Amino acid sequence: MNKMTIRVILKSGSEFAIKCDKFTIKQNGFGQATGYNIEGITENKPVYLDFEQVAAIVRLYSDEKEAGGGE
Fold first, then answer.
1. Rounded to an integer, what distance in angstroms lies between the CA atom of residue 15 and that of residue 48?
2. 6 exposed, middle or buried (CB, 10 Å; 0-12, 13-18, 19+)?
3. What DSSP designation does 68 have?
4. Are 24 and 36 in contact (CB under 8 A)?
5. Average pLDDT across the chain, whole number
6. Is 15 left (phi over 0), alpha (psi -120 to 50) or beta?
7. What is the pLDDT of residues 40-55, one digit of tens each?
8. Domain spans of the chain?
9. CA dihedral angle for residue 4, residue 27, residue 46, residue 15, rounded to 10 degrees
10. In 3D, which of 53, 47, 52 has the Cα closest to residue 15?
11. Is the pLDDT of residue 3 over 60?
12. 43: which residues sit within 8 A by CB, 6+ positions away?
């Protein structure tokens, strides 16, 4: 299984990427992110993430295509 890259962008402009097998966001009734579950992390495991400071979370499909041989 190819690792996916998840990029977390903070309101301050800082960002970091997580490489993992599976990333799931938990949401409340208003659609706001309240938590997350990450499985199979190989790079940059977050210890704590304050969702009040998160501007965006994006998945980089381009990394997966390169790793998978252009699928």
1. 14
2. buried
3. T
4. yes
5. 88
6. beta
7. 999 999 998 888 999 9
8. 4-56
9. 70
10. 53
11. yes
12. 17, 18, 19
